[in-house]
Amino acid sequence: MKNPPAPVPVAPGGRTPFRTLGHVLVVVVVVVLVALPPRQANTARTGEVVPVTGAATVLDGDSLRIDGQEIRLHGVDAWEAQQTCPDQKGQPFPCGAMASAFLQELVKDEPVLCIPLLRDRYRRLVSHCLLRGRDLGWILVEKGWAVAYTRYSDYYRSSEQQARDQRLGGWRGGASHEPRSPETWRIANRSRSNHR
């Protein structure tokens, strides 16, 4: 399933300059990469954030390492590594480990392009990342392996609702067996969570 249109201003006559967030990100990356000397494309200098691309190592369900840079996907929050979610019968299954495994399988042998937005308090690059032109955050949320982290962005809210309705990933228990959000789980399990 393709990403839905990103919310963009509509020009007079109903035309939009870009159809999806993916298109906007690709244009931004091209402009930045053309403006930078080739050797600086993957290196963040002091106070400067530039795109990072390459093979990704999965750190957890919403974090990657590319070219030595630790990256946190913007606007999504994956089930924590030790978190369990209830299935249709209310029995726990390892949704956190499965979220990490899903992301690992997704990025295996594929270059990932990340457009950093900012550095967080842990010095990670909080980024929108693309795989074959698709938003990684969108894929994780639409498959039920992450939730829309609405504290930071509403962009993935409709994708989360779709996963809930279809009982995908961590939502397989349905409305009668809803999992705790990753954030709620972290608060309740601070000693077990290695989340940063």
Topology:
Elements: H1 21-35, E1 52-60, E2 63-66, E3 69-73, E4 76-78, E5 85-86, E6 92-93, H2 95-107, E7 111-119, E8 125-131, E9 134-135, H3 136-142, E10 146-148, H4 157-166, H5 182-188
Parallel strand pairs: 3-8
Antiparallel strand pairs: 1-2, 1-7, 2-3, 4-10, 5-6, 7-8, 8-9
Relevant terms:
five-stranded mixed β-barrel, 27% helix, 196 residues, two-stranded antiparallel sheet, OB fold (Dihydrolipoamide Acetyltransferase, E2P)
Question: What does this molecule look like?
Answer:
This protein is of the alpha+beta class. It has one domain (21-187): OB fold (Dihydrolipoamide Acetyltransferase, E2P). It contains 5 helices and 10 strands. It has helices spanning 21-35, 95-107, 136-142, 157-166, 182-188; strands spanning 52-60, 63-66, 69-73, 76-78, 85-86, 92-93, 111-119, 125-131, 134-135, 146-148. It has a 5-stranded mixed barrel with strand order 1-2-3-8-7. Strand 2 and strand 3 form a beta hairpin. The longest helix has 15 residues, at 21-35.
Summary, kept brief:
This protein has 196 residues and is an alpha+beta fold. It has a single domain, classed as OB fold (Dihydrolipoamide Acetyltransferase, E2P). It contains five helices and ten strands; from the N terminus they run αββββββαβββαβαα.
